[in-house]
Request: fold
Amino acid sequence: MNAATRQFKRGEVLDYSVIVYNARLDKASSQPQLRTQMRLFREGEAVFTGKEIALVDVRQPDLKRITVIGALKLGAELIPGEYVLQLTVTDPLADEKHQVAAQWIDFEVVK
Reply:
């Protein structure tokens, strides 16, 4: 299996990355205050919701383009089929209209 076909076996690790553009910076620390949360859906129903995680001490050369990477180990109990991985990023320093952004990708769990 490989990521190009987006097929994964149960128990494998699914690595992901996204880029957050134009996060607001805290005036005191000059750092963003981003929080991320991952959700896994099957047939429109959430089968996993991760904890909200704060990105702390962001050390990247360009804070206008912050790379967020992560991994999800696919549980052995997952039923083979189509899934959607959603990553939500919250920027509490942004205006209300731009505080939350979400990206998703679909993939398949195979035997």
Remarks:
- The domain at 7-110 is CATH 2.60.40.1930 (Immunoglobulin-like).
- Residues 84 and 106 are 4 Å apart (CA to CA).
- The chain is about 0% helix and 50% strand.
